[in-house]
Design a protein that fits this description.
Order of helices and strands: HHHHHEEEEEEEEHHHHHH
Strand order of the largest sheet: 1-4-5-8
Oligomer: single chain
Shape: globular
Structural class: alpha+beta
Strand content: 5-15%
Number of strands: 8
Length: 395
């Protein structure tokens, strides 16, 4: 069955417009590498300018309302934009990303007008801070404390395994606002400007995937003061706000991009001397990845048309992660030790295969995250419960 789509005359014209704009704004010397350490500061700045240019046209958040900085376009437009960026090895995600829907759904009119345009226009870079040193995947156990003091909150605590190699302009995070309150009813969702005094960002030297901007940090807050109207959704209502953000982060955003790692693996196989068993494994790699691609397309469409995602986000994320592990094994079986070579001179496909070996491990978030995905799917399907768990609101 062919799941590819054909452009309508309207989308063909729009695709031409997108290509022409990208041809004008994307430098020919933009770095393309599997290792974030290969990217100079100048390249980062070039990518920021591309992002801002796309944002000025509403193309970073094509299906968000125009009045908030989005494009006011359809999901078909969003797919075209993502596909054309992918062809140039560019991926900015949806600028609305995790934060936009949270503000759109739970923010006040004033917050939507103030907070959304800078995000959707690409003017600010944002990290989401959720994991704490003690809690792992248990986000509801957050202990970073926010105490109300007049028109401000005073924040103390820390987050870890977050961020990238570039300092952002703002953080979005869960904070504890009622230490004595019941679980899930004691947290708040707040935006913290990164230039506020008392913030320390400490890089972590850990196994990482090595991709663009892929870098982890710990962030410490010491008497950090934040204006109270940066809290979205109401005090102690942060868990419901975060459920919208997590619906996107947990696979609900979907994906229309190709599997760049598999493309490099297949390129290697085209010139390798392989036996029949190895050729069978190559077919297995394709079959392992195809459900991920189809689930990604489905979720992308549902997200941009504001559909109820039910259990689809966690389903997609689980399939993507476990399929990645299976394909890492396939690559090792076909390529042997060469799949683990990272040296620039000798690594097949310019280190992309070795990168996949690491990313297949780190993408699973070892420590039980894949089991959390299965639990979420079960709860959303109503297995073992009289009432199905609801998905996070996207509209």
């Amino acid at each position: 069955m062919d799941f590819t789509s054909q452009d309508s005359s309207e989308m063909a014209a729009f695709r031409k417009e997108v290509k022409e704009h990208l041809d004008k704004i994307v430098p020919k010397d933009l770095v393309y590498s599997p290792d974030w350490r290969d990217y100079p500061d100048s390249d980062y700045q070039k990518r920021r300018e591309i992002q801002k240019s796309l944002g000025s046209k509403g193309w970073l958040a094509p299906t968000f309302p125009k009045e908030h900085g989005g494009g006011g376009l359809t999901v078909d437009h969003a797919i075209v934009i993502d596909e054309e960026l992918e062809k140039l090895n560019l991926s900015f995600g949806d600028a609305g990303g995790i934060y936009g829907p949270s503000i759109l759904v739970w923010g006040t009119d004033e917050q939507r007008k103030r907070m959304l345009p800078p995000i959707l226009n690409g003017q600010v870079q944002t990290w989401i801070l959720l994991t704490e040193p003690h809690g792992g995947t248990d986000l509801a156990s957050a202990k970073t404390l926010a105490v109300r003091d007049g028109d401000e909150y005073v924040i103390n605590g820390s987050k870890t395994f977050v961020g990238s190699d570039r300092k952002p302009d703002q953080f979005w995070t869960l904070v504890l606002t009622d230490p004595k309150g019941p679980r899930h009813q004691n947290l708040s969702w707040i935006m913290i400007p990164t230039d506020a005094p008392g913030i320390t960002i400490q890089p972590l030297n850990i196994l990482s995937t090595g991709g663009v901007g892929d870098h982890n940090n710990s962030v410490f807050f010491e008497d950090v003061r934040v204006r109270s109207d940066n809290l979205v959704g109401g005090e102690n209502k942060g868990w419901q706000v975060s459920s919208t953000a997590m619906e996107i982060e947990h696979g609900g955003g979907g994906d229309v991009g190709e599997n760049r790692y598999l493309e490099h693996f297949f390129n290697f196989c085209k010139t390798a001397n392989l036996d029949n068993d190895q050729r069978d494994l190559i077919a297995d790699a394709f079959l392992n990845d195809e459900p991920r691609r189809l689930f990604g397309l489905r979720n992308f469409w549902m997200r941009h048309t504001r559909q109820n995602l039910q259990y689809y986000g966690s389903q997609f994320r689980y399939v993507r992660r476990m399929g990645g592990l299976r394909n890492a094994r396939v690559m090792q079986q076909v390529m042997g030790y060469m799949s683990l070579v990272r040296d620039k001179q000798w690594s097949p496909e310019d280190r992309w295969i070795e990168l996949y070996m690491r990313s297949a491990i780190t993408a699973v978030h070892p420590g039980g995250t894949q089991n959390i995905d299965k639990v979420i799917v079960a709860r959303r399907m109503g297995i073992g419960r009289s009432v199905k768990e609801e998905a996070g609101k996207l509209e």
